[in-house]
């Protein structure tokens, strides 16, 4: 056995999600619920909420279901994006679990979109039906290419799932139209959409078709962003009839305050930022662009050391749906939009593809199991848009949202989750996520199946077995999560020196992998009490409980008092799997003291603190909160140990 210390990881290709089957346990259950409940009920909600009607472009416009707001924007302007994300989610699901009913629903939407498309390729149902004169006049606010980008991602996914080209061809015509309008050539506009999305969608289209013009257009949009003086959005505003009612504050809001390679701090609207950085990572991979990679490294560092909630959520402020000053991470008012968490998974995944450094997949794992997954109920049909870390019971999941961007975003992530598990090239296979599953790969032309048996994330024992017709020479890189302080491994019973063979958080084992080889990995996952950086004032003298990748919270539903009355006490927290709770989760029994309130009556302030009683409190995984009767919840617990 030897390592390949010098291996250069320019680009590891993710396995297609269709090559990974979750066999049982955590993600098998969640992907099943996503497929059986989330995706079908989301289509019902689109119908019930009057979304589908917007596609009937031959009919006179009906009254808006989302009125124009004081900023001149209606959420209805980007309903196309919701169709796009739903089609994308449904297509990923179809690819692994054929379903004629779902396929018929996608075809129904595709018919309407195809019919709506203008002769020149333009496709945005809002402008086609309601405001044809205004197309391309307000890239700053109106999400025109954001919507097209989501339709494009849906079209690529549907084509890959079914081989049907119709929607893809519709969207290629649309992209070719975009390319006639925007660019540096004389007569074209040097614009870009304030809500990033089209960029990463174009890279997907390039990868699906091999046509370099799509990558060229993505590169143009990325390079052009923030690069012009005067600023495109100001120039555009000058020409806007009557002037624009509102500027969403700053160029930072849309990450257009400077050229992307000069950006070193995450700013502005969080989802926009994550989509931009994802596209930059795609382009860095395609172009081998070290300057883009260097900018991304700085942005990643800033996000993860200054701006990220312990849940993996981000963007504390409702005002800009995004970032504020460093270390500003309030708990009860956290915006932490589900879409932002989901799109951090997108970015982290791409970063892991260009640099096999475990900090990327560590965060992918963190946000997946916590701040993203909290966005959907355990039953799979109710949602959170905001993901606070404290509640007094006022936060309730909703069936649908005024601005329903999050549900379909989460659905498309979960439906394609297999694609996040592993990546490879001809000499290397990296496993990023542990989950009971089979992974089918072709490494240098040879078939290799890896089977993971594990109860992860509840347990850190992972058994990986190999199936191969002929030996496959490769380095298998197993992520040793940053949270794990004690990892052991063996191959066919022989111990492996984990410390010596681990490079940037991945344990590398090189050999000719042959049928029946068995790797065992043990990742110790004791309960840990995490402290926040002293500058996060909101969390001073508090701790958050975490076990392995799973973050915990305390919910009133499991306890005799609201968690705000509790203080952790010295003693061991005990973890145990409770099959009957919340669909089967590991809960924590934690020693604590609990404030008594009975003797306070109408007293608001007094010179001695509350009396306390000693007890044991129950903590549950954060992702599973708000699935029972409304009540208080808290992640950062007072620390009295
Ligand atoms: O603006 C489109 C989407 O709606 C954004 O990504 C979300 O933050 C929400 O505002
Ligand atoms: Zn959202």
Automatic annotation (TrEMBL):
Residue ranges occupied by any Non-reducing end beta-L-arabinofuranosidase-like GH127 middle domain in the UniProt entry: 429-525
UniProt-listed Pfam families: Beta-AFase-like_GH127_cat (PF07944), Glyco_hydro127C (PF20737), Glyco_hydro127M (PF20736)
Annotated signal sequence range: none
Gene Ontology molecular function: any one: hydrolase activity
Residue ranges annotated for the Non-reducing end beta-L-arabinofuranosidase-like GH127 C-terminal domain, each copy included: 527-638
Segments forming domain Non-reducing end beta-L-arabinofuranosidase-like GH127 catalytic: 19-418
Keyword Transmembrane helix among UniProt keywords: no
InterPro entries linked: 6-hairpin_glycosidase_sf, Beta-AFase-like, Beta-AFase-like_GH127_C, Beta-AFase-like_GH127_cat, Beta-AFase-like_GH127_middle
Keywords, alphabetical: Hydrolase
An annotated GO BP: carbohydrate metabolic process
The protein's name: Glycoside hydrolase family 127 protein
Record organism: Kaistia nematophila
């Amino acid at each position: 056995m030897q390592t390949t210390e010098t291996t250069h990881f320019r680009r590891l290709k993710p396995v297609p999600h269709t090559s990974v089957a979750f066999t049982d346990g955590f993600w098998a259950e969640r992907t099943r619920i996503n497929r059986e409940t989330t995706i079908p009920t989301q289509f019902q909600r689109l119908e019930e909420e009057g979304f589908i009607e917007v596609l009937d472009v031959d009919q006179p416009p009906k009254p808006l279901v989302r009125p124009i707001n004081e900023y001149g924007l209606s959420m209805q302007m980007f309903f196309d994006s919701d169709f796009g994300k739903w089609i994308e989610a449904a297509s990923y699901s179809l690819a692994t679990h054929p379903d004629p009913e779902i396929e018929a629903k996608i075809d129904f939407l595709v018919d309407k979109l195809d019919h709506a498309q203008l002769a020149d390729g333009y496709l945005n149902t809002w402008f086609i039906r309601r405001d044809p004169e205004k197309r391309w006049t307000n890239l700053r606010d109106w999400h025109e290419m954001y919507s097209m980008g989501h339709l494009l991602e849906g079209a690529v996914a549907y084509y890959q799932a079914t081989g049907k080209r119709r929607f893809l061809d519709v969207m290629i015509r649309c992209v070719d139209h975009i390319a006639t309008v925007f660019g540096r050539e004389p007569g074209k506009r040097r614009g870009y959409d304030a809500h990033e999305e089209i960029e990463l969608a174009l890279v997907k289209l390039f990868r699906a078709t091999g046509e370099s013009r799509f990558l060229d257009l993505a590169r143009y949009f990325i390079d052009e962003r923030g690069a012009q003086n005067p600023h495109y959005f100001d120039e555009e505003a000058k020409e806007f009839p009557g002037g624009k009612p509102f500027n969403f504050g700053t160029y930072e809001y849309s990450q257009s305050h400077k050229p992307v390679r000069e950006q070193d701090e995450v700013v502005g609207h969080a989802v926009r930022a994550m989509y931009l950085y994802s596209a930059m990572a795609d382009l860095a991979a395609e172009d081998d662009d070290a300057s883009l990679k260097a900018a991304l490294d700085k942005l990643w560092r800033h996000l993860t050391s200054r701006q990220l909630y312990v849940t993996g959520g981000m963007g504390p402020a409702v005002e800009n749906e995004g970032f504020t000053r460093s270390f500003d991470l309030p708990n009860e008012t956290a915006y932490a939009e589900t879409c932002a968490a989901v799109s951090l998974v997108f970015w982290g995944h791409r970063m892991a593809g260009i640099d096999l450094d475990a900090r990327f997949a560590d965060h992918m794992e963190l946000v997946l199991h916590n701040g993203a997954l909290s966005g959907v109920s355990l039953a799979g049909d109710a949602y959170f848009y905001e993901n606070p870390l404290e509640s007094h019971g006022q936060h309730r999941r909703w069936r649908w949202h005024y601005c329903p961007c999050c549900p379909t975003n989460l659905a498309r992530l979960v439906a394609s989750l297999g694609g996040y598990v592993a990546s490879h090239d001809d000499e290397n296979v990296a496993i990023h996520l542990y989950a009971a599953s089979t992974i089918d790969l072709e490494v240098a032309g040879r078939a290799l199946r890896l089977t993971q048996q594990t109860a992860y994330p509840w347990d850190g024992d992972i058994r990986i077995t190999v199936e191969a017709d002929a030996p496959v020479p490769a380095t298998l890189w197993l992520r040793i999560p940053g949270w794990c302080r004690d990892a052991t491994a063996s191959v066919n019973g022989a111990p492996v020196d984990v410390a010596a063979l681990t490079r940037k958080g991945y344990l590398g084992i090189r050999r000719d992998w042959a049928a029946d080889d068995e790797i065992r990995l043990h990742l110790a996952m004791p309960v840990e009490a995490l402290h926040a950086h002293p500058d996060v004032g909101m969390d001073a003298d508090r701790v958050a409980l975490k076990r392995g990748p799973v973050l915990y919270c305390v919910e009133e539903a499991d306890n005799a008092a609201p968690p705000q009355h509790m203080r952790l006490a010295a003693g061991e927290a005990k973890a145990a799997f409770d099959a009957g709770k919340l669909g089967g989760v590991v809960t924590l029994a934690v020693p604590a003291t609990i404030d008594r309130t009975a003797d306070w009556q109408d007293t608001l302030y007094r010179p001695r603190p509350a009396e306390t009683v000693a007890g044991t409190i129950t903590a549950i995984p954060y992702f599973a909160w708000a699935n029972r009767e409304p009540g208080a919840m808290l992640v950062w617990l007072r620390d009295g140990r």
